[in-house]
Structures are given as structure tokens and as C-alpha cells.
TrEMBL record:
Record key words, sorted: ATP-binding, Nucleotide-binding, Transport
Domain (ABC transporter) ranges: 2-229
Ribonucleoprotein found in the keyword field: no
One Pfam family matching this protein: ABC_tran
SMART domains: AAA
Organism: Echinicola jeungdonensis
Name used for this protein in its record: ABC transporter ATP-binding protein
PANTHER family (alphabetical): ABC TRANSPORTER ATP-BINDING PROTEIN ALBC-RELATED
GO MF entries: ATP binding
Amino acid sequence: MIEFREISKRFGKQKVLNQVSLQLEVGHGVALVGPNGSGKTTMIKILLGLVTSTSGEITLYGKPIEKQSEYRKDIGYMPQINRFPDNMKVGQLFGMLKNMRKDVSKEQYDLDLFKAFEIGKLKDKKLNHLSGGMKQKVSAALAFLFNPQVLVLDEPTAGLDPVSNELFKQKLKSSINQGKLVLITSHILSDLDEITTHVVYLMDGKVRFSKSLEQMKEETSEHRLNRMIAQILNREEVYV
Ligand SMILES: Nc1ncnc2c1ncn2[C@@H]1O[C@H](COP(=O)(O)OP(=O)(O)OP(=O)(O)O)[C@@H](O)[C@H]1O
């Protein structure tokens, strides 16, 4: 569905992504993991058109995204850092975005997280008065609101309390089961355990490995994501 074809990115002299090729399919829960600074957020931003690649291309259903303007509408995005308009109230933000997306009817809205996180109760609160976790909840509810086929979530669980974290994971699980594509980054691997169907491990701007969970389970005989990843990395180091 989405293909990264030899994507490279330089910031000045620094090569942040080095010929990254990757295929992402509907119905997959893809965990994009790797050390700090390995290029995860940059990959996501290139996919969303927020940063331009130095070379390579990304295609959606075989067509380069550069030539499409509407493709972003089908991607729900939760950024690592939320930048909401300071003086706006929560209710006003939802109202404004609904007005901008007249292409989606009310019946199509996905209000599961909006309801689960009780965002309605926050409608008169100013966005800059929200706590970090509340902002994450607003951001999560917005990412799902217009029922996109693809969800791109950059460290979405940071700051969520345990109950909200669980509600969020269940929502991700059911979205993947419904055939959506979820691309998620997190350093908290236990948060990814139940939702991941594929792991892409990025290191120094290169894909160190990209495997399905089944493949990783078979190769390692482990059940937890952190142990599987650690074993695969250790084993590869021996052979390098
Ligand atoms: N706008 C920018 N200008 C210059 N360098 C940048 C810019 N954005 C990112 N970088 C650099 O690119 C590298 C990769 O950053 P990126 O945010 O993609 O990493 P990450 O894997 O998401 O890291 P983390 O796990 O810490 O969130 C880092 O060295 C970062 O300093």
C-alpha cells in the first residue's frame, strides 16, 4: 500500500536516512523502533510531506505521493510534540477541523476515543491549559476522528495514564483488525507488544531489520517484543 523506495535524507552534512526501502500494508501494525536519533520521526515526516527527502520516493498504491495532494486526508497523524493554537478552546479546535473536512460526513466520524477519553468534558478548556496527558488524548481523538485508513502515531502513549493507555491499545488493535494500517513509534516496547504485527528496526538511518512478528517468534522462541528484538540484534552482531 505504502512503499518507501530508497529514501535518503540529509540535514546539512548529516545523513539522517540512508536508502531506506520499506513496504507497509493494510491490516498491519508496524512498530518503527530504534535508538534516539535513528531517523524514525524524519521518516514519518517525509511520509506526511512535512519534510522533503533528498532522494528516493514514496508511493501510495503505486503512485508517488508527490503527485497527489489528497493523500494526507487518509492519514491520521499523532505527532511526537503537539503544537495546538494556544488560545483556542478544545471544542473550537474540533469544530474548526470538522468544518475543514466537509468531505467526511458526521456518520463516518470515529468517535470511539473522543468518547472513551471524555473529550466532550474538556470543550471549554483552552488548549494551552491542558496537562500533557490531556493533550495526548485530544491528539489521539483527532487522529482517529475522520476515520482514516492509515494511522501514523509518533510516541503516542507518552504521558497517558494506565487506563487511557489500555483504552488506546484496544482501539489500535481493533483498527488493525478492521484492516487499517497503523505505523507507530515508541520506546516503550511493552506498549507495542499486543498491537505489533511487524517490526522495522532503524539504526543510523538504515533499516537494520524488517520482520513480521511470526518470523521473529520463530527465530527467537520468545514472546515479548523486547526480548525478540534484543536476540535478533545480538545474533546479527555475532555474524557481522
Ligand atoms: N530539522 C532538522 N534539522 C537538522 N537536523 C535534524 C532535523 N530534524 C531531525 N534532525 C536530526 O536527524 C536525526 C534523526 O532525528 P529523528 O527525530 O528522525 O530521530 P528519532 O529516531 O525519531 O529519534 P527519537 O527516538 O529521539 O525521537 C537526529 O540526529 C536529529 O538531530
